[in-house]
Amino acid sequence: MKILVTGGAGYIGCVLVPMLLERGHSVRVLDSLMYGGAGLLPCFRSGRFEFFPGDIRDPKAIQSAVEGCDAVIHLAAIVGFPACRKDPVLAEEVNVAGTRWVAEAAGKKRLVLFGSTGSNYGAVPDQVCTEETPLNPVSVYGKTKVAAERMLFNDCRTIAFRFATAFGLSPRMRLDLLINDFVQTALRLKYLVVYEPHFMRSFIHVHDIARSFLFALEHADRMIGQVYNIGAKTMNFSKAQICEMIRKQVDYYLHYAAVGEDEDKRNYVVSYEKIGGLGYKTTVTVEEGIAELVKGLRLLEVKNPYANI
Ligand SMILES: NC(=O)c1ccc[n+]([C@@H]2O[C@H](COP(=O)([O-])OP(=O)(O)OC[C@H]3O[C@@H](n4cnc5c(N)ncnc54)[C@H](O)[C@@H]3O)[C@@H](O)[C@H]2O)c1
Fold it and tell me: Is 307 inside any structural domain?
């Protein structure tokens, strides 16, 4: 297939695009390069890779990028509640208005795979989220992603994935994600201050997120028009459990604080029975992800050039 990946230079895209190329797909990335594009440089070795610099808020850019493509994987967004809170107008413009242009350009024939999020659930009273759980997003991030998801289901042949919180290494590294942040902080500062330690969260390695898109391309006929939670039942953990897992690999001081709160109000266990029923399984555990982070984050160390003077 020829696939357009919007936001393909991001954390997920940099892992996904090489996998798509390896599977024999042709891949075109449209990205405004908010965080640079170096993670995609090795892809140019493939004659099946193209990069279109551009913004999904520009209908001409998205229209020309989608030309000749069979499917769109829509990842471009302002991602996470801190980034959306910093600039809510931009978040609305990109995540909602931008998605409108993507939907229009994709039309009724192309397959659209959408990177949605568990933040759509927001404050959940019964604490176990299935795809039928009513959406109650509380942050700008959650609200804009819910609006985008609904729009794509109305207008396109869409499969939407509500991902657990990602972790793991990617060439475009995100250190705002809970496990990545905790490991980085424990390594650097040797202490970690954690609020709401008993809040339950759900996690997935970035490699398994990328694999879920490959799975959807292979099983699209059975999946179109549906939303799926993507993760694993065995990967629902409290923050305190994550801290203990990190402690097995990093020596650090842990302090639970009475102040601080998650703006997305995420405190729930997520059910992955629907996607599991189709045969999708995650492959990377949290422990393996922590081990990978402990080794890999050293490459991002900022060395003090005057340390030995
Ligand atoms: N990583 C996670 O834990 C997670 C979980 C759930 C859902 N998602 C969703 O997956 C998608 C990708 O997330 P990510 O973690 O790779 O984030 P990211 O911030 O690393 O990547 C987003 C990419 O989109 C690009 N972009 C932003 N605005 C753009 C615009 N106007 N036009 C074109 N490109 C633009 C950025 O340059 C960046 O390369 C997002 O839609 C996000 O909501 C991510």
Answer: no
Q: Is residue 8 part of a domain?
A: yes
Q: What is the pLDDT of residues 138-168, one digit of tens each?
A: 899 999 999 999 999 999 999 999 999 999 9
CA dihedral 56, 57, 58, 64 (to 10 degrees): 20
Task: State the distance from the centre of ligand 1 to the C-alpha of 114, rounded, in angstroms.
Answer: 11
Q: What is the CA(256)–ligand 1 centre distance, in A?
A: 30
Instruction: Name 228's bridge partners.
Output: 161
pLDDT digits (tens, 9 = 90+) for 232-244: 999 999 999 999 9
Instruction: Give me the pLDDT at residue 143, please.
Output: 95
Judge contact between 11 and 22, C-beta under 8 A: no
| 28 touches 67 (CB < 8 A) | no
Distance 78 CA to ligand 1 centre (A): 6
- What pTM was estimated for this model as a whole? 0.95
Number of domains in the chain: 1
pLDDT digits (tens, 9 = 90+) for 35-53: 999 999 999 999 999 999 9
Q: Which residues line ligand 1 (CB under 6 A)?
A: 6-7, 9-13, 31-35, 55-57, 75-77, 79, 94, 98, 115, 117, 145, 163, 165-166, 172, 174, 177
Residue 308 belongs to a domain: no
Residue 80 CA, ligand 1 centroid: distance in Å: 9
Q: Is the pLDDT of residue 262 over 80?
A: no
DSSP-derived 3-state class of residue 238: strand
The CATH number that applies at residue 165 is 3.40.50.720
Report the atom number in ligand 1 closest to the C-alpha of 145: 43
Q: Is residue 309 part of a domain?
A: no
Q: Which domain holds residue 138?
A: 1-301
> How far apart are the CA of 79 and the centre of ligand 1, in A?
5
Nearest to 208 by CA among 283, 113, 280: 283
